Recover the amino acids of this structure.
């Protein structure tokens, strides 16, 4: 079940429920990351999302509802419909997919233009790829401006055999 909250409100909900919207282009690793967070293990193969995925986490009286909307081109037009209900946007980028990094940046900036106050987390997945070889930071390439950046290392097994 996904918490709906009040439209366009990013304030802390009174019930300690947070909706986290997880977006990114198809193949970026959204489903793999959600699966890993919820089960602490990575699957060898996760099918591409054919619409939506949801998961719920509970810890210390806090409930987080994760909603992933698929990243294929035909589903991206629906992304902005979910922004007003989200408390946080997690945008996943496949940093090894050099051919579509500009598309990812355009899509992210479109979302930020829709709701510039929504808290944003960018996860640059598969970082052994293009960003690393070009010596670029994620925030520089995505043109996010000066931000506080927290670098996290997820297990490399998270992306093994990934297809969705």
């Amino acid at each position: 079940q996904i918490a709906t909250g009040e439209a366009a409100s990013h304030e802390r909900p009174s019930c300690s429920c947070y909706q986290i919207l997880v977006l990114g282009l198809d193949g970026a690793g959204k489903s793999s990351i959600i699966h890993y967070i919820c089960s602490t293990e990575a699957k060898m193969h996760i099918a591409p999302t054919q619409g939506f995925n949801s998961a719920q986490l509970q810890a210390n009286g806090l409930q987080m509802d994760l909603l992933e909307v698929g990243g294929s081109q035909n589903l991206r037009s629906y992304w902005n419909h979910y922004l007003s209900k989200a408390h946080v946007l997690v945008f996943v980028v496949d940093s090894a997919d050099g051919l579509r990094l500009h598309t990812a940046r355009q899509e992210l900036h479109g979302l930020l233009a829709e709701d510039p106050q929504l808290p944003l987390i960018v996860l640059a997945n598969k970082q052994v790829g293009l960003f690393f070889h070009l010596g670029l930071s994620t925030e520089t390439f995505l043109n996010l401006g000066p931000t506080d950046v927290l670098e996290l290392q997820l297990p490399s097994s998270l992306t093994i055999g990934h297809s969705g």
About this structure: The first strand starts at residue 17 and ends at 23. Helices lie at 30-39, 73-76, 101-114, 130-134, 138-141.
